[in-house]
Amino acid sequence: MPTPKDSGHESAAGAQIKPATGKLGVMLVGMGAVATTLIAGVEAVRRGKAAPIGSLTQLGTIRLGKRTDNQTPLIKDFVPLADLQDVVFTGWEIFPENMYEAAKHAKVLDKELLEEMKEYLESIQPMPAVFDQHYVKRLNGTHVKKGRSKCDLAQQLRNDIQEFQSKVDRVVVLWTGSTEIFLEPTAVHQSLEAFEKGLLEDDPGIAPSQIYAYAALKEGVPFANGAPNLTVDLPCMQELAKITGAPICGKDFKTGQTFMKTVLAPALKTRMLGLRGWYSTNILGNRDGEVLDDPESFKTKEESKLGVLDFILQPKLHPELYGDIYHKVRINYYPPRGDNKEGWDNIDIFGWLGYPMEIKVDFLCRDSILAAPLALDLVLFLDLAKRTPELSHLGIQEWLSFYFKSPMVAEGLYPEHDLFIQSMKLKNTLRHIMGADLITHLGLEYYD
Questions:
Q1: Is the pTM of this model over 0.85?
Q2: Which residue numbers delimit the Myo-inositol-1-phosphate synthase GAPDH-like domain (predicted)?
Q3: CA distances from 118 to 80, 85, 144, 400, 413 (A)
């Protein structure tokens, strides 16, 4: 049984993981509300001004061995994660404002905190972004790269990554940008060869997010997709990730309403309670809400949000309980609300002898406040995966499903959406790579 990493003892499995020495560079694609909240928040934590609430890597614990062993170290003391003091931020944005100006526009964090961080935030100036308004109709980028082709734009991104790599020790790329229009895989996505040919020919199936993913993976850099875009959830990207040993995961941060669904739906199924309908609607006033006001971008988000119930409830196995569910999702752009999203759910259930009941949920949440700690965890865990021989060449990191609305899985598998199964998968993966016994919760050993 291994002990926490700071105790001086390490298993043979854990010893194979490269240490998190030096600087970890984080490159964010889209430096708006989520990105500025993440950057300012990490700096506030580093200065001792705030606690990293919502971050599993910073506050979460992991049980080792039997309950009677009383071994529950912090996750960051058990696996070799990068220290927050070693994290360096940069990224790309379609508007030229530095992170202080961008954070002021986002209106997520209070003025007092921003003023304390002003000098630091002003020092982070975004690089011009790869952008095409065809894929995000409600935005008009002014700080964008020009190129002869999508291949040329990909090379410009690779140059940006290479330059940043020269200043740090390791790099992770995270998409924190807007939701692109709905796309489905085409022939250009079926192989790396086809995709690279499509870059040269400006294939319309290749959206900007895919160009970022390609550039990162070609440089061997891990990539996480925080939006529902068709970005790394493609055969060509998975092929490239395995070749270069760059872990990938996605898609779409699981923050508000869907987070609640992945808590409540497993509870209904576990108790074998029936479900007739689930109506979900949101009001949101930030840039994300503005983008999702476009039907084509909303379609991408809708697909991400609607799939959750089918996979959790398994209607084919339980047709009498879940075979005829009416599931509706709506998102409404409402500027006065800003980043403070409100999600309403009306859930019509039935129980013993078919008697009807209802559940009402009104979640007044803060979108970027919920997303920022997820982004931090993903950056640190992807960096860990890159340094772990057993994980780095797998491509898809299914153990990070915990963070996503539409978790990526290997072909032929259905995704696990149950938050508690996802949590167990994540922690057991950490135990496994450190050589610790997996926790089954069987518990019979206490009664021998």
A1: yes
A2: 256-368
A3: 31, 18, 25, 33, 47
